[in-house]
């Protein structure tokens, strides 16, 4: 068992889903050759090719619009918005089309897209680099919003998000990218497949890792939190 970083867990989740499904496509600003500003997509272009992990122009509305179109065409796009506040130009595409498509078509057109957004403070980021924009998405009907609170969450939740037929806003706490946990990646893979099999067989209701969890039992006070605030609590 070796120390696995939050960033490496996300990278492994992307790679594993790309290996499992040829329709999973990753794109965004600098995600290809550079591997992303936080290196979350490092090595994916080299391993899967430029048609599976590629760079886009600096136009977030275009990135989101491309994702909606690709999802309608049968792909499972995973888009990266380089920083939280950079995603605002894409909000119209997200709220008006990604969030509404399944309802608009009475379920005939699934919308299996995942929008990864690094968010939050704690890294000394300047304006446009340290917003906490999750409330906008959480209050938009039709969107699912995930934010992992641990290295294990990062791996399991991202793989789950990519497999869903609904649009998922995947909020990644920037200050947690370099946190570590002693985890065996093969054991995580096995856990994910076992849990996903339960979801597919309807033995598990809803998304397996989209629930509240008791992280530290106690008797005197209840703290309810999510994402990067969970370790603090």
Describe the fold and architecture.
The chain is of the alpha/beta class. It has 9 helices and 8 strands. The protein has helices spanning 6-20, 44-48, 60-72, 91-98, 101-104, 134-138, 151-163, 185-200, 229-232; strands spanning 2-5, 24-28, 53-55, 76-80, 114-119, 144-146, 168-173, 180-183. The strands form 2 sheets. Strands 3-2-4-5-7-6 form a 6-stranded parallel sheet, sandwiched between helices. β6 (144-146), α7 and β7 form a beta-alpha-beta unit. The protein starts with a strand and ends with a helix. The model has no long low-confidence stretch (mean pLDDT 93).
Instruction: Indicate the proportion of strand residues.
Output: 15-25%
CATH architecture: 3-Layer(aba) Sandwich
What structural class do helix, strand and pairing data support?
Answer: alpha/beta
| Rg, alpha carbons | 17 Å
Q: CATH H-level name... which superfamily?
A: Thiamin diphosphate (ThDP)-binding fold, Pyr/PP domains
Percent of residues in helical segments? 25-40%
Uncertain stretches of 5 or more adjacent residues = none
CATH domain topology: Rossmann fold
Q: How many angstroms does the end-to-end distance come to?
A: 27 Å
User: In what order do the strands lie side by side in the largest sheet?
Assistant: 3-2-4-5-7-6
